[in-house]
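Morning F.,

Quick status update on the modeling queue. The single chain you submitted on Monday has been processed. Sequence for confirmation:
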Amino acid sequence: MPTRKLPNPDDFQGQKFYIGIDVHKKSWAVTVRSLNFVVAHFTQPPSPAALLSQLQHKFPGGEYFSTYEAGFSGTSAHEELCKLGIKNIVVHPGDIPRTDKEKKNKTDVHDSRSLAFHLEKDNLHSIYMLSRQQQEFRALFRLRESKARDVARAINRLKACLLYFGIDYSSTFEGYISARVISWLRKLHMTNEAGAFTLKKYIDDLVHQRSELGKITKTLRNQAKKDYGLPYKCLLSVPGIGFTTAIGLLAEIGDFNRFKDPAEYCSFLGLIPWQHSSGDSVQVKGIQPRCNKHLRPLLVEASWFAIRNDSSLLKYYRKHAVKNSRHAIIKVARKLALIAKGVAQKLQMYDAAYSPFPDLPNRYI
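Structure tokens below.
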């Protein structure tokens, strides 16, 4: 890629340099811009210290600004870059402006060049940066989600094994496999040692996965009480919101004050519609696909419980279910999310008469 030499190559004091970094596990592709020109491009080891060394060697005394896309590497590189004096931001990949040509001709060079260009033009905005403590709490919550899927997988494998060998378990259990059912399963007679060993391993896997899930859940609950005592208690007072949803909101959002208005909060959760309009044609589609995919299903599930336990939310659901019951439950989920935000911010227990969203446009209520 062609680069341009800068005037006064020995004196860059106070001059601004904009660095686009295409981050990979084994290497970084780096493009440097200044004065509206590409002045350097190179590939280096994945190290903020190595980047600073290159910049100080090529452009000593300059003021450095950098950016990279959010992804597998998290924010550890961001934290180290900032410590080294490089003003870095992390951007959402979907928020980077790209031409049709750039979309069809994607390489590391093009990606780093595009990042540097838009950083210099001030077209990029940083994602919300969680603290390291908050990120670790969120990681524990997501670990629990993963382990819950492992438990479900172990149950399905065990049931599939029983069905394959023609073992009728419908009279003993259908849903939850209790300790009594486990004891019954261990007493089942198989034809030979191979079958007995197979069944035993499926049972042992289920017991192990459940044990691990219990340990993670206990640690998560203790951590929530320790770090979010009152907000956690207030969230549990909201109808429909139980342990998992309350923990999810605290882990994935962290600070509810990060949102400028209720509409931005609902957009983050993916609980507002999106449009595709042109001229007189206005197409209002379903709930937007870009959202926090860990929270939206939890809130929708919590809404079904909420309308069974709270008369005001049930009345709200019936009001909108006349037109479309599927849309109605999303509206309840949106209202439930706003109530949760209100009680967590104000540190107040749930009150059915309290409305935490007076400024939300009517189309979102």
